[in-house]
Amino acid sequence: MEQINWVQVIIGFLGGGACGAFIKQYFDNRRNRVQPIGKSIEIKSFYDSVENTLLNSQVILTGSTQEYKFSKLYTGTIKIANTGLHDYSSFTFGITCPENVNFIHIRPESTDRHHLAEIKDLPTLENQINSFDITLKPFNRKDNYTFDILVTATDVRLKEEDIKISSPHPINWVDLTSSSKIVLEIARESLVRFGPLSIGLR
């Protein structure tokens, strides 16, 4: 059986008009898919009066006008990363917790002055809330935003699963701890095969 000269086949394919149309359609299909957005939530107990029953104490934080006492405080970080193939000029997501869990502080780690995180109804000591929205401007491919948080809880031991993240955008939330799997999946999907050879599209 006569062997196929794959080099000539590839050159002929790339030199034809069908190649451009094929590649354009390929990228259009990729970008029109539901895009993956990575998220990560880490929580650490800062103070828990249950673990200090002998002292029976509370943490006191001072606001602008008064003091606030807490039996349980948690610190942590929330990370949001654009692991997809779509650039967003504005990307909104929301944070929601149970009624007995409240945010009292959240601060974005600034990357540069061209990347902004706008927090609607900012949580503070005077405004302890369990749900609010954040808008990222912009949120381009490979962009990531990190937020330092301070949370209080009543009659419950706070877990990462208690903090829910949602968005009105048509996306698929993925755990950033599985980012290596995402990279491998994207890499596999970016290969167009011609016989024994592969061409990567990026």
Brief write-up:
This protein is α+β, with helices and mostly antiparallel strands and 202 residues long.
Molecular structure report:
The chain crosses the membrane at residues 6-23. Keywords: Membrane, Transmembrane, Transmembrane helix. A hairpin with a 2-residue loop joins strand 12 (191-194) and strand 13 (197-200). This protein has a domain at 36-176: Immunoglobulin-like, CATH 2.60.40.290. The chain has three helices and 13 strands. Helix content is 18%, strand content 42%. The protein is elongated. The protein is an alpha+beta fold. Mean pLDDT is 80; it is low at 179-202. It has a five-stranded mixed sheet, with no helix packed on it. It has a four-stranded antiparallel sheet with strand order 7-8-5-10, with no helix packed on it. The protein has helices spanning 6-15, 17-32, 179-189; strands at 35-48, 59-62, 67-70, 72-82, 91-96, 101-108, 116-120, 131-137, 144-153, 164-166, 171-175, 191-194, 197-200.
